[in-house]
Amino acid sequence: MAASNTGRARSLISSSSLMARSKFQIERKHILDPRSESTSSISGWWFIESGRMAGGVKSGVLLRYIKEMKNYPYTIDNGNGEQLTFTGVTRDPDGDRTEADGVARPGAGPPMHVHYLQDEAARVVSGRLGYQVLGEEARFAGPGELVVWPAGVAHKWWNAGNTELRMTGWCRPPDNIEFFLGSLFASTRENGRGRPGLFDAAFLMTRYRTEYAMLELPTVVRRLVIPVVYVVGRMLGKYEKYKDAPAPVTRHSSRSS
Questions:
Q1: CA atoms of 118 and 150, how far apart (whole Å)
Q2: Quick check: is 11 in a domain?
């Protein structure tokens, strides 16, 4: 992403409901229901960017987005050791979910973050996965093990081994995860410093604040600095490339309240 048996993760939800949801499911069974139907293409968001092709998605400055039929699989690469290949959207009795294959080099992985409205899962194919819920100790998973982070549970993961980490995973429901991560990865790759550009980060964190949050940023930065940068970016015309960005999801999740 020496384990604590109690859920002390500090998030934006009540501690009582968190206790019930911070127990990870680590198991050795197939995720997919054999009755599920996998789609090879859905209506979604595709990137038109300048620059060279990189892993199936162009890297460089994002120019604009258009809504069209999206073809799976396609790959995004943040240039900092993480690569995701979106393989499609699967429909099953529990609802639609976006599925992806992930690759991370040793030490690579996202910082502490939260999906307010989505469950997230990762199954290790090869390598060693390290993961941690906010307020708890680090845990580890090996090949065949599945880790599920329910909606609202702040967490991070990383490649805890010395070899390449390979995983399969999903987010349920899909919401804006592909657009959000695609934009974040493209900006990180373009910025070249292991993090997204400041104005891009401000746009994504502000527009999609009902869906995602990057919790390793100090609270004062998230609540005061980022909104100011967002306003400045609008004044400077930095967000023309995002003019067709999908609307944020604002529904309330019964599991995050």
A1: 7
A2: no
pLDDT digits 0-9 by tens, 227-257: 999 999 999 999 999 999 999 998 754 343 3
Establish if 193 belongs to a structural domain. Answer: yes
User: Which residue has tokens 């993760």?
Assistant: 9
Residue with tokens 């292991």: 194
What are the pLDDT digits (tens) for 37-72?
333 333 333 333 333 333 333 333 333 333 344 689
Position 208 in a domain: yes
The CATH code of the domain that includes 122 is 2.60.120.10
Residue 203: per-residue pLDDT = 98
Q: What is the mean pLDDT of the chain?
A: 78
Please state the domain count of the chain.
1
What range does the domain containing 209 cover? 1-6+16-257
Q: Are 130 and 142 in contact (CB under 8 A)?
A: no
H or E segment and range at residue 227: helix 226-235
With b meaning 16 or more CB within 10 Å and e meaning fewer, what string describes 62-85?
beebeeeebebebbbbbbbbbbbb
What 3-state class would DSSP assign to 252?
coil
Q: What is the DSSP string of 134-183?
A: TTS--EEE-TT-EEEE-TT--EEEEE-SSS-EEEEEEEES-TTHHHHHHH
> Is residue 87 in some structural domain?
yes
